[in-house]
Amino acid sequence: MAIRKTLAIIGILGAMAVTVAAKAAADSFSDIKTAGKIRVAIDLASPPNGMLDAGLKPVGSDVETAELLARDWGVQLELIQTTGATRIPNLQTNKADVVISTLAVTPERKQVIAFSKPYSGQLSMVAAPASLQIRDWTDLRGKVVTVCRGTTQDTDMTKRATEFGYTIARYDDEGAMVTAAVSGQATIVASSEALIKQIAVKSKGNPFEPKFTIRVFDLAIGVRKNEPELLAALDQWVADNLKNGKLNDIYQRHHGHALPKEVVERK
Questions:
Q1: For the residues 1-14, what does the mean pLDDT come to?
Q2: How far apart are CA 147 and CA 126, in angstroms?
Q3: Which of 84, 88, 135, 147 is within CB 3.0–4.6 Å of 154 for a Cys-Cys bond?
Q4: Tens digit of pLDDT for each residue in 240-256?
Q5: How many whole angstroms separate alpha carbon 94 and alpha carbon 155?
Q6: Alpha helices, DSSP H, located in the chain
Q7: Which burial class, exposed, middle or buried, applies to 3 when counting CB atoms under 10 A from its CB (0-12, 13-18, 19+)?
Q8: Residue 245 belongs to a domain with what CATH number?
Q9: pTM for the whole structure
Q10: 187 & 226 share domain
Q11: Is 150 in contact with 82 (CB distance < 8 Å)?
């Protein structure tokens, strides 16, 4: 009798373990469709990709991209506000289903999350006031370069800091970095082409300008690893909306020029 009870308990525990394992292995795409909602992490301090308008409504190219995704999938959009440094942690802690937030594809990030096909592109650049003579990396020696914490610029500039003899100042969000640049607290910044344009527009007297390109990035939708169904659905969605021109229309409306041809023409 005791043996039968023990076996029964073992059987129950085994079934529970299988259930938990199956749930852990479940793909969130089916959860999204069942819930009728997709949670998308977006940085709203990164114009023109993500920002708040005068009425505090989220706008920008990444916001419109997320809205288009939700509309095409027939689900409600829940926007999860994030910063550059918390985009990937929001995925890892299940606060968001996906990230659409100027998330560049890098080897380091691919070790911890998965990426969809690129839906956009981004120039990463060093910029400074027009009066400052900076042509390449060697001209940064002895200077301070400002970045947003957790971004690809943070990673790239950190790797080269010792070699080229500059120091790094970090801000936790891009809005604070823009304010620092416009106010003169930050003289040299490493950021995206889009953000540098925003600084240039707001700067007066000694406007910022791009000095040199760090590199060109693919921007993709971030997904947790081991979610093949969700990743396949996102890949198909990106391919369809690059082909029909909707993603290009969104990009051009907010950035003032077409998507990089490398993104549109990639097979």
A1: 39
A2: 10
A3: 147
A4: 999 999 999 999 999 88
A5: 24
A6: 2-25, 28-35, 61-73, 87-92, 107-110, 152-164, 174-183, 193-202, 228-243, 246-255, 261-264
A7: exposed
A8: 3.40.190.10
A9: 0.71
A10: no
A11: no
Q: Are residues 132 and 89 in the same domain?
A: no
Q: Are 199 and 178 in contact (CB under 8 A)?
A: yes
Q: Is the pLDDT of residue 12 over 50?
A: no
Provide, rounded to the nearest whole percent, the portion of the chain with pLDDT above 70.
Answer: 90
Contact indicator for 140, 165 with CB cutoff of 8 Å:
yes
pLDDT at 5 over 50: no
Domain count, the chain: 2
Q: List % helix, strand, coil for the chain (3-state, nearest 5).
A: 45, 25, 30
Question: Please, which residues bridge with residue 51 across strands?
Answer: 59
Give the integer Cα–Cα distance in Å for 136 and 116. Answer: 33
pLDDT at 76: 98
Q: What is the pLDDT of residues 76-116, one digit of tens each?
A: 999 999 998 899 999 999 999 999 999 999 899 999 999 99
Assigned token pair, 47: 């114009």
Do residues 94 and 127 both lie within one domain? no
Q: What is the pLDDT of residue 267?
A: 62
Do residue 157 and residue 175 come from a single domain? yes
Task: Determine the Cα–Cα distance for residues 134 and 128; give it in Å rounded to an integer.
Answer: 8
Q: Which domain, by its residues, includes 168?
A: 123-216
Residue-wise burial string across 120-156, b where 16 or more C-beta atoms lie within 10 A, e elsewhere = bbbbbbbbbbeeeebeebebbeeeebbbbbbbbbbeb
Dist. CA 72–CA 193, nearest whole Å = 29
Asked if residue 101 belongs to a domain, the reply is yes
| CA–CA dist 267, 201 (Å, integer) | 36
Return all residues near 61 (Cβ < 8 A) that are at least 6 apart. Answer: 48, 49, 50, 120, 250, 251, 253, 254, 255
- Residue recorded with tokens 């900076």: 134
Residue 69 contacts residue 85 (beta carbons within 8 Å): no
